[in-house]
# Entry
Amino acid sequence: VILVAVVDASTDEPDAVRVGELAALVAEEPPTGHGSTDPTALLRHAALVDDVFARHRAVLPARAGTTVDADALSAWLEGRQADLRTSLDLLRDRCELAVTWTGAETPGPAPESGSSPGAVYLERLRASWAGADRAERALDVVRRDPVVVDVRVLSRSPGLLKASLLVDRDSWVAVRDEVAAGLTADRQWRCTGPYPAYSFVRAGAPA
Amino acid sequence: MSGAVEHVESDGSLVDLLDRLLAGGVVVAGDVILTVADIDLVRVRLLALLSSVPTMTPGEEQSS
# Structure
């Protein structure tokens, strides 16, 4: 089966695998193959998680394409019960927004005459990151906003910075309009969402 | 919005969604096979197990 999400055990889902206060919601593997993440399977997984997210206040969404032996699922829930419980409580009534900065690389200054090739290279490399650095500093303003619970930078490169904002479900519109609008005013930022809080759950150490 | 998920109309929303589907979320030991046009390109065995919310780990860098 494919793991869709972990939710509170109080769920009324008939096929949930329950251990203590937790319930794992699973789905049959897509017909396209064992655990495959082809586009159809990805969108199916997203739809399944969205459906769970719409019906439950606390949701730990599962990564797409993760297959698990149904018999082992109970043991997994049992072993990670405390972590999962804590995570569920933190994500209760919360969702994430995606913010993305795309900008042209900042051209470096003209090299001084006599500069070594190595110095020129390093200066250009430094300059190429300047845009992403500025974008990350702009996120600091968002991070200080009280309606934003957390900010995670997902990836960063000279012309691209991707981040996620964890916000209350009831306030995501306000965050998008008031906070993200400050970023998007320069047309180099994009804000989409809300999504289940995929980015605020992370892989841990092997059990 | 207590409940329904509404994705903001945007050219980038599908890309943003895929970023999250493939790089975030709870992971259980298992297999992921990246497939394009019915051809399996990459098979990844997931050995790492699962889940804690970064904000719960005091003293560990988490947001940058």
